[in-house]
Amino acid sequence: MRSPATAEASSAIGRIVALAARTRADEARQRSQSTDPKSYDEIFRRTAESANEIQKRIARERKHGQAQWLVLERHPQPRRLVMIRNDRRLHTWGLYQILLERSRGLASQNPRGAVQMAELALAVARCLDPEIHGEERTADFQAAALAALADAKRRLADREGAWGAYEAARECLEEGTGDPLERAELEILRARLLRDFGPEEEAERSLRRAGRLLRRIGDKRPEQDLLDDTAHGVVQRRARG
To answer: Cβ atoms within 10 A of the Cβ of 43, count?
Structure first.
């Protein structure tokens, strides 16, 4: 799955795209009222200022989320989940993002820890207010947490758990924004699951679908490069005998 830096950038871009969508109506009104190119200057200025403010807000939310994680970290996992469900102060995008990044960062070396972080990220995502973030975006957040959970369970050779989390992620994504990057990453996850648990010919088809989605947004990485933990998959298959 994507790196923490890419995840952060994607979330930021999602918010900036939402901002741009809101300003398109202003731009259309300006076009209908004037053909003077100078009339666009104010729109561009406001858009740039708003995008800068969004970036600052994201940084503040992440800093706050890191502080919240330091509080949660002192407790055992069951208690963390209870705290998240019951404490509205923990229902923040910043905490969600920190937990999701920790899950992805732990996946290769400590998949059990990654499972825990993904479970916490999912708990936060399910508590986020759709009035603030939008119903489709909150569905995307849940899908990303479920995908991280599926990937961590895959690395533990938990076939049933991994596929169950993947299917839940797919269902959430169907209710999301339709972001082609999110869809591509879910196809990559499916390809990895199929590579590890078979059949591998279906994994190739998923990989080709992921490649087509990525090319639509300008990502031209070779499809085989998307399966970046092939050695891990080989070890898992050998372990299963």
So the answer is: 16
Question: In whole angstroms, what is the distance from residue 69 CA to residue 65 CA?
Answer: 6
Q: Which of 32-46, 117-131, 153-167 has the lowest mean pLDDT?
A: 32-46
Closest to 143 measured CA to CA, from 159, 166, 120? 166
Beta strand spans in the chain (E): none
pLDDT of res. 103: 97
Q: At what angle are helices 180-197 and 200-216 packed, to 10 degrees? A: 160
Kindly report the pTM of this predicted structure: 0.75
User: How far apart, in whole angstroms, are the C-alpha atoms of residue 126 and residue 34?
Assistant: 46
Q: Which residues contact 187 (CB under 8 A, 6 or more apart)?
A: 206, 207, 209, 210, 213
Stretch 86-96: mean pLDDT: 96
Query: Which string of b and e fits 11-36 if b means at least 16 CB within 10 Å?
Result: bbebbbeeeeeeeeeeeeeeeeeeee
Cα separation, 26 vs 36, in Å, equals: 15
| C-alpha–C-alpha distance, residues 174 and 135, integer Å | 12
Gap between the Cα atoms of 182 and 213, Å rounded: 10
